[in-house]
């Protein structure tokens, strides 16, 4: 799984929002026992935020000079917090709790997508399908079953066994084109036969 990462999403904030965010970060870092030796002095970072506040207030007069000075102060503060973000990432070493303790935001963790137990693919010919199952540990063989209908049958006896195989794939031919079928499988292991998988429905082409 991909490790959580510090994100510098503050670059998308408005200047007033950045000021609030920056002050929140500093509130989390000052006195934090995890981050005792930052690559840039927290006092210098605080000064850059204070200068941004003053420059923003001055820019309220609408003059080009003061507006330009405000953006210069914004760039300096952003640079300082990028340095802090890199420092936090290095010290935290992917530890989610440590990153969150800094006040910085964390990238969304990559979700491990579980492979479905069973997928049904179109076969090479009309009226054929291919079972593709997730391999079962220590399986010696697989049982492949199907049923024609839009919903699974009421009893197990109505399922038709298409065959057995030693691999986790199996092709079935001769099904009725344009009909909806239900498909399932079970594995035969050294401890017995597993439960059948949840049915998967598919229109046969």
Q: What does the model show?
A:
The chain is an alpha+beta fold and 205 residues long. It folds into two domains: 6-106; 118-203, Immunoglobulin-like. The protein is built from four helices and ten strands; from the N terminus they run E-H-H-H-H-E-E-E-E-E-E-E-E-E. The protein has helices at 15-29, 42-58, 64-92, 96-101; strands at residues 6-7, 105-106, 118-122, 129-133, 139-148, 160-165, 169-172, 180-189, 192-193, 200-203. The strands form three sheets. Strands 5, 6, 8, 9 and 10 form a five-stranded antiparallel beta sheet that branches. Helix 1 (15-29) runs antiparallel to helix 2. The protein starts with 5 loop residues before the first strand and ends with a strand. The model is unreliable at 110-114 (pLDDT under 50).
Secondary-structure element series = EHHHHEEEEEEEEE
Overall strand count = 10
Q: Radius of gyration from the CA trace?
A: 30 Å
Residue ranges: pLDDT <50 for 5 or more in a row? 110-114
Measured between the Cα atoms of the first and last residue, the distance is 37 Å
Q: Please give the domain count.
A: 2
β-strand amount = 15-25%
Label the structural class. Answer: alpha+beta
Mean pLDDT: 91
Major β-sheet annotation: 5 strands, antiparallel
User: Helical amount among residues, as a percent range?
Assistant: 25-40%
Shape: elongated
Tally of helical segments: 4
């Amino acid at each position: 799984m991909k490790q959580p990462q510090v994100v510098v999403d503050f670059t998308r904030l408005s200047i007033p929002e950045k000021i609030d965010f920056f002050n929140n970060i500093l509130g989390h870092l000052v006195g934090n026992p995890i981050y005792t030796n930052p690559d840039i002095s927290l006092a210098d970072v605080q000064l850059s935020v204070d200068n941004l506040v003053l420059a923003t207030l001055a820019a309220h007069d609408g003059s080009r000079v003061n507006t330009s000075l405000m953006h210069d102060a914004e760039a300096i503060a952003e640079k300082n917090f990028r340095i802090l973000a890199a420092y936090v990432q290095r010290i935290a070493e992917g530890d989610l709790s440590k990153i969150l303790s800094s006040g910085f935001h964390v990238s969304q963790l990559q979700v491990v997508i579980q492979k479905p137990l069973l997928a049904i693919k179109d076969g090479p010919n009309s009226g054929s399908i291919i079972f593709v199952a997730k391999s079962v540990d220590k399986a010696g063989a697989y049982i492949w079953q199907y049923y024609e209908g839009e919903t699974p049958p009421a009893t197990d006896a109505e399922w038709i066994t298409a065959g057995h195989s030693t691999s986790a794939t199996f092709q079935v031919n001769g099904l009725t084109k344009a009909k909806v079928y239900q498909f399932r499988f079970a594995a035969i292991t050294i401890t017995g036969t597993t439960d059948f998988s949840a049915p998967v429905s598919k229109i046969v082409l």
